[in-house]
Structures are given as C-alpha cells and as structure tokens.
Amino acid sequence: MKLYAELPARRTRQIVADVSAVAWTALWVQIAYLLHQAISALAKIPDQVTRDGNSLRDSLNGAAKEAGKIPLVGKELGQKLADAAGVAQSAAEAGRTGSETVGTVALFTAIVVGVAVTVPILLFWILARARWVARARTAVLLRDEPAGEDLLALRALSTAALKRLRQAAADPAGGWRDRDPVTMKALATLELATLGLRSR
Q: Which sign, positive or negative, has the C-alpha torsion 51, 55, 58, 61?
C-alpha cells in the first residue's frame, strides 16, 4: 500500500497537506482548550458565593445555638438566626449551581468549537487521502501487469483533459484503437503521472 506519491511534486503536496491538517487540528484543539479555561475562570464568582454562603451559614448556626442559651428571648432569637443560616445555605447552593453551569457551558463550548472547526477538515483530508491510496494501489497493480497498460491508457482517455491527451499523443483515441505501443505507453504514463506515480 502506497501512502505517498513517487513523483516529487505530488509527494511534496501530499506531505504539506498532511502536515497542514495535523497543524490545523492541533491549533484548534489548543484554541478550544484556552476557550474552556477562559470560560471556566468565570466560575470563580459563584465559587466565592458558595464559600461565603457556607461560612455565613456555619457562623449563623453557631450564633443560633449560643442565642438559644439566653433567657426569655433566646429561643426566638435562635430561630431567627437559624432562618438566616437557611438563607445563607440557599445562597451557597445557588453559587454551587452557578459554578456547575459555568463548567458545563465551558466544556460544551470547547467541544462545539473544536469539533465544528476540525472535523469537516479532517473528514475531507482523510477521504481524499483514502481515495488516493485506493487509486494508487490499483494503478500500481496495473502498472506491474503486462495487460495493465491497456487499462491505464483507457482510463487516461476517459478522464484526462483533452489538452493533456493531445500533449501525450497526436491521435490518442486512434492510437489506442490501433494499439499503437508508443501511444499506449504515453497514455498509461499520463494516467500514472496524474496520481504522482512513475511509469513501469
């Protein structure tokens, strides 16, 4: 199985395309990571609310216990402080929920950006490379078979641009019908060159 062309010009283009695809993917993975980090940094605010809420709740609960020891008004004062501790607990829960929401948004945004930008390019690159590998494999097998030259020449006749056909032979169709060896060789070489492969 061939992964790269034999002719230098086509092989260089393939290598550049491969390196570019990998570099593009790495770049956008890094961008998605930085975006995730930037959005995640916003969680510092709800995290602080959670910490402050928990601290205030603990303080109010402690004060409520102590207030309960005061004669006459202790029970009512302790209840008020306990209620305030409940409000602080609610604030802490809201901060925790906010932090989780920010984390979810950061992760979702990074995934969407990374996938939306890299996957189409990678799919196009992989499909193009797979198509070339399959065509090159078939062409190499035909090149190495005595009867393969005829099929390669026919393929060139059916797919190559007219200008390139006329450059390869004065009468490409007539030469192919007459099985002129020079024309057959030129057409087969043209088809192989289109794939970046050398003639036999």
A: negative
From CA 29, how far away is CA 35, in angstroms rounded? 10
- CA dist 25 and 118 (Å) reads 6
| H or E segment to which residue 196 belongs | none
CB-based contact 58:68 (threshold 8 Å): no
CA distance 118 to 187: 39
Please tell me the distance from the alpha carbon of residue 2 to that of residue 137, in angstroms, as a whole number: 6
pLDDT digits (tens, 9 = 90+) for 56-112: 777 777 776 766 667 766 677 777 767 777 887 887 788 788 788 888 888 888 898
**Taking Cα atoms as reference points, which of 152, 157, 121, 158 lies closest to residue 135?**
152
Whole-number Å distance between alpha carbons of 171 and 50: 83
Say how far apart CA 157 and CA 31 lie, in whole Å. Answer: 47
Angle at 64 between CA 59 and CA 66, to 5 degrees: 95
Q: What residues have CB less than 8 Å from 164, skipping those under 6 apart?
A: 190
pTM, to two decimals: 0.67
Q: Tell the burial category of 151 from Cβ atoms under 10 Å away from its Cβ (0-12, 13-18, 19+).
A: middle
